[in-house]
Write a structure and sequence with these properties.
Layout (H helix, E strand, L loop, with lengths): L3 H10 L2 E10 L3 E7 L8 E2 L2 E3 L6 H13 L2 H5 L6 E10 L11 E12 L12 E8 H6 L5 H10 L24
């Protein structure tokens, strides 16, 4: 693990690669956590975390889902299957250390995770003050749900595209690059 100063240097100079989990039950509710830390402090966001050096994406999904949701073993054993919904770019004007002039850039691999109706809410943790189930359309329209979370909902549930100006940051696509 990097010490705080070394990690701050990484955040200042590079993009971080992460996985986010769009956890849905009954195709009608999404699980969001109220963030305690920067970036995205004090807004509702999906669970997720960085991919570590030499960590496979599948292993990062298991680790993050295990530590934040208690779902690591279900994913490891195949009883729950995260489905990729796209690669996203997240840009924040601040960073975890609240250092002035240091922003954060994430390249995020979004995954839809469908859970059974009786899935229990995870306990608050170091990243989240609380978790809550949101009706998907309510989350898509709420002012205190982060725009990047709304972008995931549009990508996972294309029928939400009727909501005005919701998809501000779509997944990165080959069509985003100019033709030579």
């Amino acid at each position: 693990m990097l010490d705080r100063q070394a990690f701050l240097s990484v955040v200042d100079r590079t993009a971080l690669v992460s996985v986010d989990l769009i956890v849905v039950r009954d195709a009608s509710e999404v699980l969001l956590g109220l963030r305690k830390n920067r970036p995205a402090k004090d807004v509702w966001f999906v669970p997720g975390g960085r991919i570590f050096k030499n960590e496979k994406i599948a292993d990062a999904l298991i680790r993050v889902a295990g530590s934040e949701l208690g779902l690591g073993e279900e994913i490891r054993h195949g009883t729950i299957h995260p489905k990729p919904i796209g690669c996203f770019e997240h840009f924040y004007p601040d960073c975890f250390a609240e250092e002035p002039r240091i922003s954060t850039h994430y390249v995020v691999l979004g995954h839809l995770v469908e859970v059974p109706h009786d899935f229990r809410l995870p306990a608050a943790d170091t990243q989240h003050a609380t978790f809550r189930w949101w009706p998907i359309e309510e989350a898509a329209a709420a002012r205190d749900v982060h725009q990047y979370t709304k972008d995931y909902l549009v990508s996972a549930y294309l029928d939400l595209k009727h909501l005005p100006k919701l998809a501000a940051h779509s997944p990165v696509a080959v069509s985003d690059f100019p033709n030579p």
